[in-house]
Amino acid sequence: MTKTTKTMNPKFYLVLALTAVLASNAYGAVVDIDGNTMFHESYYVLPVIRGRGGGLTLAGRGGQPCPYDIVQESSEVDEGIPVKFSNWRLKVAFVPESQNLNIETDVGATICIQSTYWRVGEFDHERKQYFVVAGPKPEGFGQDSLKSFFKIEKSGEDAYKFVFCPRTCDSGNPKCSDIGIFIDELGVRRLALSDKPFLVMFKKANVTEVSSKTM
């Protein structure tokens, strides 16, 4: 018996491509430093303004190794640990601008034995700050998981910023806060809610770099 091989109509691929372009234009796709649309892959978060630290990584607080906060490397030549984006509601494959999504520090293993999804922690009364910390994987859209949703918004021509909009289950229009940098008593540059945003750009990480990252 002779098998017949079905070939896809070229028009089908054209429709798919046009759909992707239209969706990207309608919602706005986040792009990396090479101008490529970002997808479910790993990316370094790097500062736009040079000379003020490097990429993002994990560190404890107050001299303690655990649990982790999201912090900036002190050296601008250190790209830190890449992150992955997920769980946006739009039915698009690319990472969308200005849409709630989850962010995970993409590290293989940690000494703290904890998940590394970003979330806004409890108010630090000593430092009078809300810090961005590492926490469990968000499950659904319950009150606790809502602390783990951030937006990536365009800021100027070539920069982005992270925004936290603490929508509660019964709130209408939440008050949004930018994610900035707070320098603590030990000189550690920590991500925290701020009136001054931390302007960033994204660089795609290769598979070898991601698999080699541990804490």
TrEMBL record:
Superkingdom of origin: Eukaryota
Write out the annotated subcellular location: Endoplasmic reticulum
Would you kindly state one Gene Ontology biological process term found in this protein's UniProt entry? Answer: response to insect
The main location is: endoplasmic reticulum
Q: Which GO terms describe its cellular component?
A: endoplasmic reticulum
Keywords for this entry?
Disulfide bond, Endoplasmic reticulum, Plant defense, Protease inhibitor, Serine protease inhibitor, Signal, Thiol protease inhibitor
**InterPro entries annotated for this entry?**
Prot_inh_Kunz-lg (IPR002160)
MF terms from GO for this chain are: cysteine-type endopeptidase inhibitor activity; serine-type endopeptidase inhibitor activity
Record's signal peptide: 1-28
Family assignment from sequence similarity: Belongs to the protease inhibitor I3 (leguminous Kunitz-type inhibitor) family.
- Write the protein's name: Proteinase inhibitor I3 Kunitz legume
